[in-house]
Amino acid sequence: MSEKLWGGRFAKGMDKLMEKFSESISYDYKLATVDIKGSIAHAKMLGKCGIIPQEDADLIISGLEGILSDYEAGKIKFNTNLEDIHMNVESILTERIGHVAGRLHTARSRNDQVATDVRLYLRFETEKIIDCIENLQKVFISLAEDNIDIIMPGFTHTQHAQPILLSHHLMAYFEMLDRDKGRFKDCMERFNYLVLGSSALAGTTFPIDRDFVSQELEFKAPTSNSIDSVSDRDFISEFLACASICMTHLSRLAEEIILWNTSEFRWINLDDSVTSGSSIMPQKKNPDAAELVRGKTGRVYGDLISILTIQKGLPQAYNRDLQEDKEPVFDAIETLSMCLDISSLMLSTATFNKEKMLKAAGESYSTATDIADYLTRGGLPFREAHRQVGELVAFCVKNNKELLDLSFSEINEICPTAKEDILNYMSVESSVNARKVFGGTAKQTVQKAIAKAKANLS
User: Fold this and answer.
1) 141: three-class secondary structure by DSSP
2) Considering 157, 263, 273, 409, which one is annotated as catalytic?
3) Count of CB atoms situated within 10 Å of the CB of 432
4) To 10 degrees, what angle do helices 32-48 and 85-97 make?
5) Is 386 labeled as catalytic in the residue annotation?
6) Tell me: the pLDDT tens digits for 246-278?
7) Burial class (CB in 10 A: 0-12, 13-18, 19+), 172
8) Superfamily classification of domain 119-359
């Protein structure tokens, strides 16, 4: 006869290779806290509903609370022969309170138990990720405030486009992170429902109170269909999609920091605490934090692809394939959280080179659009103004000049409707401050955006 808690039907034990192949305690131990809390709520309900004697429920609850306390103190060691976190907790409970522990699993299955555990765990971890996002948003706000007067080139197609404020550029990442935060909150709204009570797949014959357990564990309500409940991992897919999009934003940020840190740019100086040197080249200072964030993005993408692939061919309801859902989740949570924290550290300790950024902002004819806009305001159709300024740029290229180097007579020869005040529209400062439209890069507009962002966070 098998020694497993489910072994009554089996004539012999599981092969050692099979035990090693099928165990999950080596990683699902991370669910210990939520598993025990879920069991405490379940035991309270069993006693309340008279499904088990109240004194047995009280003894179970007391035993579980003791296990939780010991686990949090680092005094619990789990046994890989017991497969998973659920069997380990029940086994320890049996050692401590005896056969009464066998009543705990009344009216539930590991199928609804694990689905409940993962939802509880994700809810807790999602809240922590949202905190990490907000910490990084605060860093962007602080950087934007401290560097409000720095002008840099804005880019399209990785080519200089128009002058912008560095603060405006930084606040673009604030907006990306705000959408990430909204996605995680929205995702949590969808998965914050109680699965427990669905049992293996068909519900239970016992008169349980799912609403009571839902309230105890702070879920919105119980799930509506027991078959869907135990087999649904949409919420994991959605969480990993949110994590992947957030990592995309962090990777884009990392890529820019890596570029700005090159000798060719020298726009940013990263603190020694987030960089490394070379084992052979004494002069090197490498942007390791940014490079690792960029590299780890692919890892989180892989976690998303893993869970989607695991689910794609599964019939209803629970299948053991779903044991493979946890490692991608654990990995993505750990990776994303670390990347958010290291990005906060990297940026909060960085400094920017105002002079180099300003110089670059004035190169590559970045105020050409402002000149076209000036001519348009003077009555010229924009397409004609666009053509004339294009010819003006071609003249500059041919004569190795920047727009600011041109005299009024040179401009007027190509743009005959221009007046001498056109020279006031050639500087990067005037270009930036002219863009006062809501969402634009003018200083007063960016300051309003920063104030709004601070108010929203607070």
Assistant:
1) helix
2) 157
3) 26
4) 60
5) no
6) 999 999 999 999 999 999 999 999 999 999 998
7) middle
8) Fumarase/aspartase (Central domain) (1.20.200.10)
- Spatial separation of the C-alpha atoms in residues 436 and 443, rounded to whole Å: 8
In 3D, which of 277, 296, 276, 306 has the Cα closest to residue 338? 296
CATH topology for 362-457 is Ribonucleotide Reductase Protein R1; domain 1 (1.10.40)
Asked whether 244 and 302 are in contact (CB, 8 A), the reply is no
Q: Which residue in 22, 69, 276, 278 is the catalytic one?
A: 278
Helices 326-348 and 110-146, axial angle in degrees (round to 10) = 10
DSSP strands (E only) in 146-246: 151-156, 159-165
Residue 169 is among the residues annotated as catalytic for this protein:
no
Count other Cβ atoms within 10 Å, centred on residue 294.
Answer: 20
pTM as predicted:
0.93
If we measure between CA atoms, which residue out of 49, 198, 213 comes closest to residue 120?
Answer: 213
Show Cβ contacts of residue 12 under 8 Å, excluding neighbours closer than 6 positions.
Answer: 1, 2
CA 340 to chain centre: 8
Q: What is the CA radius of gyration of the chain?
A: 31
Taking a C-beta distance cutoff of 8 angstroms, is the pair 290, 254 a contact? yes
Domain 19-106 annotated CATH 1.10.275.10: yes
Domains 19-106 and 362-457 are alike in CATH topology = no
For the segment 400-431, what is each residue's pLDDT rounded down to a tens digit? 999 999 999 999 999 999 999 999 999 999 99
Alpha-carbon separation of residue 298 from 174, 274, 327, 418, 447 (angstroms): 22, 21, 16, 52, 35
Say whether 409 sits in a helix, a strand or coil. Answer: helix
What are the residue ranges spanned by the domains of the chain?
19-106, 119-359, 362-457
- Distance from C-alpha of 360 to C-alpha of 354, rounded to nearest angstrom: 10
What is the spatial distance between Cα 456 and Cα 454, in angstroms, rounded to a whole number? 5
Q: Using an 8 Å Cβ cutoff, are 332 and 241 in contact?
A: no
